[in-house]
Amino acid sequence: AQKITQTQPGMFVQEKEAVTLDCTYDTSDQSYGLFWYKQPSSGEMIFLIYQGSYDEQNATEGRYSLNFQKARKSANLVISASHLGDSAMYFCAMRDWNSGGSNYKLTFGKGTLLTVNP
Amino acid sequence: ETGVTQTPRHLVMGMTNKKSLKCEQHLGHNAMYWYKQSAKKPLELMFVYNFKEQTENNSVPSRFSPECPNSSHLFLHLHTLQPEDSALYLCASSQDLTSNNEQFFGPGTRLTVL
Asked: Which residues contact A100 (CB under 8 A, 6 or more apart)?
């Protein structure tokens, strides 16, 4: 079973509008971390936002916020006031204990391609 | 220079060639990673190093050989690759291996195997 599921291969949003990118995860750990990364066409993965499993409040970083619903195991990214530079691939990732391994492992979803239209 | 750098940015090689990818981080981190990103697939973790010691080899074929001479540098030596190895190879670093530390990525090396 997939540990990170991003059900939207592609999303379109009008400039200046808000958009939500979905992410659900699967883990049996109580302690884990959730991350969102942005990957523009240049290839570099850019860290956007982090949510810890014990954090009671939703994480926010500027125009990015994370809608964390622990019981539903979802960690959706909300981008407010989109602009053209937000067009990119967005990856949700989770870090939990690597079963059978010796450390925490970061697992990525397949990503969502966001296109912001003028 | 700051952040995580990777060289070369693009590499084309034949199946009989030997080449190396280089990664350098200027963040004072202790953990470094190699990932493979193929088209339409999630990022695949290949190797993890913590304080220069390899802590994970994610069932990677032996034609990929990592080397971590110190905490700031990470290499990926390539030999007798296959066309299906063509992908974007991303290097990343983090402060350590605990769950709440984000990984900082380099720009990647776009590898094409002919």
From this structure: none
Question: Residue A22: what residue type?
Answer: D
Q: What is the pLDDT of residues B98-112, one digit of tens each?
A: 767 789 999 999 999
Strand partners, A76: A67
- B chain contacts of residue A50, beta-carbon cutoff 8 Å: 100, 102
Mutate to test the interface with A, among B30, B100, B111 (most CBs of A within 10 A): B100
Six-digit token pair at B55?
């802590």
Render pLDDT for B48-98 as a digit per residue (tens, 0 to 9): 998 888 888 888 999 999 999 999 999 999 999 999 999 999 999 999 887
Q: How many CA atoms lie less than 13 Å away from B19 in the CB half-sphere?
A: 17
Kindly report the nearest CA distance between residue A81 and chain B, in angstroms: 25
What are the phi and psi torsion angles at B96 (to 5°)? -160, -160
Task: Answer for the pair B19, B76: CB distance below 8 angstroms, yes or no.
Answer: no
* Cβ–Cβ gap B42/A103 under 8 Å: no
3-state SS track over chain B: CCCEEEECCEEEECCCCEEEEEEEECCCCCEEEEEEECCCCCCEEEEEEECCEEEEECCCCCCEEEEEEECCEEEEEEECCCHHHCEEEEEEEECCCCCCCCCEECCCEEEEEC
Q: By CB neighbour count within 10 A (0-12 exposed, 13-18 middle, 19+ buried), where does A39 fall?
A: buried
